Amino acid sequence: MAPALPQGVTRPSPAPAGGLAPAELPFPSTGPHGHRGRMRDKLLSRGPDALADYELLEMLLFLAMPKGDAKPLAKSLINRFGSFARVLAAPQRELMETRGLGPHSVAALKLVQAAALRMQQAELIEAPVLNNWDRLMAYLNAAISRERIEQFRVLFLDTKNRLIADEAQARGTVNHTPVYPREVVKRALELHATALILVHNHPSGDPTPSAADVEMTKEVKRAGAVLSIVLHDHVIVGNGQWFSFRREGLLG
Question: Which residue ranges of the chain lie beneath pLDDT 70?
Fold first, then answer.
């Protein structure tokens, strides 16, 4: 048994076999806490532009993973889904099935996606939508361009063409979404909207309208006209591309 030490004196930690004592090591702590602190300092001192996409994702995962190394998971998620943005937009079911993710981390990812869309939507509400076309396209691209099945949305506008609501009306398959003009007009009346912009995505990435898209647009326009609800446009969003019925002269 080692002899007792005088009061106030502590015994030094033993050095690893064949190595230095902990206090003499270049990196006394190699755990995630030191790394996380350095990442946080990098963000706060140099700004988010100093972080690579996988580092942004890694720091986001920190919020849901109090311990552990999130870097390999962040990189594997980007490898699987293709980009930071596609990770955020990935279907919840697929994220939940991904090894290393759970309810807390998936909720964190979806919360950030929702926050980003809310910020863009708030900017649209401040001014007439038709006067902010580039901003509208940026919002729609973020909202639905990465969806893997067709989604049909309606932007409901007031008399000054300001956004009242953006609502998903239907979700379909990879190449078809059922749309019911009566339901669109009924909802416009409930919201006291006087104008509409129809929006849907093409998961193929090609925003060229189909014959069914053209016919459906005509039906919605006719149904709205009966009640003095104007159809301003129908926008189809692809992968980084979009198609405007108004700009292409297809509204009639």
Answer: 1-33, 125-127, 171-177
- What local confidence, expressed as pLDDT, does residue 140 receive? 86
Q: Kindly state the DSSP code that residue 126 receives in the 8-state scheme.
A: T
Q: Coil, strand or helix: which one is 236?
A: strand
Q: In terms of residue numbers, what domain contains 169?
A: 128-244
Q: For position 236, what pLDDT does the model report? A: 95
pTM passes above 0.85: no
**Contact by Cβ (8 Å): 200, 236:** yes
CATH number at residue 80: 1.10.150
Question: Could you give the number of structural domains in the chain?
Answer: 2
Tell me if residue 130 falls in helix, strand or coil. Answer: helix
Q: What tens digit of pLDDT does each residue of 155-180 get?
A: 999 999 999 999 988 765 555 557 78
Q: In this structure, is residue 10 part of a structural domain?
A: no
The string of pLDDT tens digits covering residues 56-81 is: 999 999 988 888 889 999 999 999 99
Is residue 34 a contact partner of residue 27, using CB atoms and an 8 Å limit?
yes
Residue 245: count other Cβ atoms within 10 Å of its Cβ.
23
Q: Residue 100 has what pLDDT?
A: 92
Q: 162-168: which pairs have CB atoms within 8 A and are 24 or more residues apart? A: 162/125, 162/127, 162/128, 162/129, 163/121, 163/124, 163/125, 163/129, 164/191, 164/192, 164/193, 165/191, 165/193, 166/121
Burial letters 74-113, b for 16+ CB under 10 A, else e: bbebbeebeebbebbbbeeeebeebeebeeebbebbeebb
